[in-house]
Amino acid sequence: MTALREIRHHPKELTLAAYAAGNLDEARAVVVASHVSACGACRTAVRDFEAVGGACLLSIEPVAMNNSALDSFWARAGRQERASRPVSTRAANDFSLDASHPLAVYLKDGVDAIEWRAVAPGVAQRVIPAEGYRPGVLRLLKLAPGVRVPRHTHGDEELTLILRGSYVDEVGEFAEGDLADLDGDVWHGPVATGDKPCICLIATSAPLKFATLFGRVFQPFFGL
Questions:
Q1: CB-CB contact of 172 with 181 (8 Å)
Q2: Contacts of 17 (CB under 8 A, 6+ apart)
Q3: For 176, phi and psi rounded to 5 degrees?
Q4: The dihedral of CA 92, 93, 97, 102: what is its sign?
């Protein structure tokens, strides 16, 4: 993802602070990291939060760590291998990443090797393993131009980053680089705009709550 426009929608300050402190689940951390990699303002905010956290740590009396602490951490968090080659091209899936992108490590076979699963006419998704040590679901969602996601809210927080294309909903207009940081107080039904598919990177920690009977009946088949 290369942001060629002014990014207008950003994570909430509390989300950025939690990211800087390492308190987000892996799925949400990947989405925030992907946004931060393209957004100078949010990179600055994260650095500021990290500086505050570092100052707080310096004021705490040091405590010796258990000899097995590092092994215990890796057992809980899991080890991730860095991508060994660029994950690039803008062919079949109409978007590109390079090896430095936070999502690249999860797509080791490249963007064009993504196996999309159709969940509704004009809607496809790919769930990406990102278990970490806190619950969370990471997925890529692709909407054909003009397709609307049924109106819904969220059982918990949802982070949606636009990798390619754009959509509009009750919150506003979202395009490449924008991030929607939503919770259960927001109802919306995004519609893909423009003449190319809208591809989003989404992190959720609970199933969506659809407003319509159609959405609720078919939710198990959608997998959303």
A1: no
A2: 49
A3: -50, 125
A4: negative
Q: CA torsion angle for 7, 13, 18, 24 (degrees, to 10)?
A: -50
Show Cβ contacts of residue 124 under 8 Å, excluding neighbours closer than 6 positions: 116, 117, 118, 141, 142
Alpha helices in the chain (DSSP H): 13-20, 26-36, 40-58, 69-77, 213-222
Taking alpha carbons only, the member of 9, 7, 36 closest to residue 172 is: 9
3-state secondary structure of 38: coil
Per-residue pLDDT tens digits for 44-89: 999 999 998 877 776 777 778 788 877 776 776 655 444 444 333 3
Closest CA to 222 of 143, 112, 111, 133: 143
Domains of the chain: residue spans and CATH: 1-224 (2.60.120.10)
What's the predicted TM-score (pTM) here? 0.79
